[in-house]
Amino acid sequence: MAKTLPAVIRQIGAVAIGLGVLGFASFAFLSISGRVLGPAAFAPLATMWVLVNAAGPALFQPLEQEVGRAVAHRRALGMGGRPVYHRAGVLALGLVVLAAVCVALTRGPLTDDVFAGHGVLVVALLVGLAGLGAEHLTRGAMAGGDLYRRYGGQLAIDGFLRLAGCVALAVAGSTVVGSYAFVLAGAPVLAVLVTMRRLGPATQPGPTAEWGQLSRAVGLLLAGSVLSQLVINAAPVAATALATESESARAGIFVSVLVLARVPLFLFAAIQAAFLPGLAALAAQGNRSGFQRRLGSILATVSALGVAGVVVIAGVGPWLVTLFYGSDFVTTRTDLIPLAAAAGFFMIASVFAQTMVAVQKYVPVVIGWAAGSATFFVGLLAPWRLEQRVGLAFLAATAVAALAMGLLLRSCYGDLFRDAAGRPAGGTTVDVVPPV
Q: Which end of the chain has fewer surrounding CB within 10 Å, N or C?
């Protein structure tokens, strides 16, 4: 473990810096806009922020995962990943079109029930989703090609642009919700335009990527991604949708509190960016001992990160909420601690899921996230006040997902390095471990 961790740190350092900038910018954006707009007007903007950061990864993170895994796998075997990258680009465009159709068909309910009558937020949502689609596609190429400085740079540019735009609006005294929404949506688009050149192994020629294999992998990853994003992001949407008129301000506070309690997830994203391609490369080489060391070191790091998050929230959580958002945003440790604990369980579940994705065990990942998603909706039936009901449902969902994912990984761990014929993985084929 001691030998593996420094290599992981070297890989994720640039990504961690970029995520630090993006995380700071995101909190500053929410803090500034929350103070300018007030809790009630801030609620639809915060909900759009959550939806962009939920639907974007749900739709497009599978592309990042599969492109990163396939490019890293091919690079470990001395092959280029251009066919994978180009075909993933076609799939990304198709997903953007699908998102546009879905948004158009649900524009009325989104405007009235989710965005409190602010129809312009529907357009901003679609722009933001397209931007995140381009970001995830290019980040997959960067991660698979070991271009983590470029990966971190894209994150930092995204964060800088959203913060600069928000500060400019606040200084100008703007209280127009749509203006802040388009700053949030436009930043990813501009960040991609700046960083999309010279993507290394992903643009080098290599063996043809079969449409059937790529589409099946992305399809299963998409199902798992949608379910995982439901587990991690359904809570604020549920709080907004279930809130009565008298609870609208409380719902806005809850969304803000949830963002703060999930701070460890920003750090985990840096680990996750290098984790999957690294494991895929080790699997391609048949390096079982290295694979196990990498998994053990990441799992230990993530567990420590989750515990630290709960300790901080339990100690100074309510004070931090007021510090970031202002005196109108008041909460209690009873509401905060379940959210922080849920973030920790989600990270552990994600480590187990990424491990199985690295060797193309996709179906168990879908099953694990489905168990967590079902648990969340069952938890919403509890007869408690709004914040407690949604918060504890979130905690139960992540705990069940982590348990289910761990059991599923354990059940198939012995077969991770063997193909369907029982031969050790790491041979000369492009994808030596068949999808399950």
A: N
Among residues 371, 364, 367, 369, the alpha carbon closest in space to that of 411 is found at 364
| pLDDT higher than threshold 50 for residue 422 | no
Q: Is the pLDDT of residue 327 over 50?
A: yes
Give the pLDDT band (50/70/90) at residue 429: very low
29-38: average pLDDT: 82
Contact 116, 242 (CB under 8 A): no
d(CA 303, CA 233): 21
Q: Where are the domains of the chain?
A: 4-415
Question: HSE (CB half, 13 Å, CA atoms) of 33?
Answer: 33
CA-based nearest residue to 235, from 59, 389, 76, 72 = 389
Residue carrying structure tokens 């400019």:
168
Q: Is residue 214 within 8 Å of residue 359, measured between CB atoms? A: no
From first CA to last CA, the distance across the chain in angstroms is 29
DSSP 425: S
Residue tagged 């901080």 (tokens) = 312
At 240, the pLDDT band (50, 70, 90 cuts) reads confident
Distance between CA atoms of 336 and 426, rounded to whole angstroms? Answer: 46
Q: Which residues of 50-80 are buried (b: 16+ CB within 10 A; e: fewer)?
A: bbbbbbbbbbbbbbbbbbbbbbbbbbbbebb
Note whether 239 and 386 are within 8 A (CB). Answer: yes
Q: What is the pTM of this model?
A: 0.70
Residue type, 314: A
Work out the angle at residue 427's Cα, subtended by the Cα atoms of residues 422 and 429, and round it to the nearest 5 degrees.
100
DSSP for 99-156?
Answer: HHHHHHHTHHHIIIIISTT-THHHHHHHHHHHHHHHHHHHHHHHHHTT-HHHHHHHHH
Residue 51 tokens read as 């939806």
State the DSSP H helix or E strand holding residue 263, giving kind and residue range, or none if neither: helix 263-284
Give the pair of three-digit tokens for residue 431: 């994808």
- How far is residue 294's CA from residue 313's CA, in Å, rounded to a whole number? 29
Hey, is 310 helix, strand or coil?
helix
For residue 88, the model assigns a pLDDT of 83
3-state class of 94 per DSSP? helix
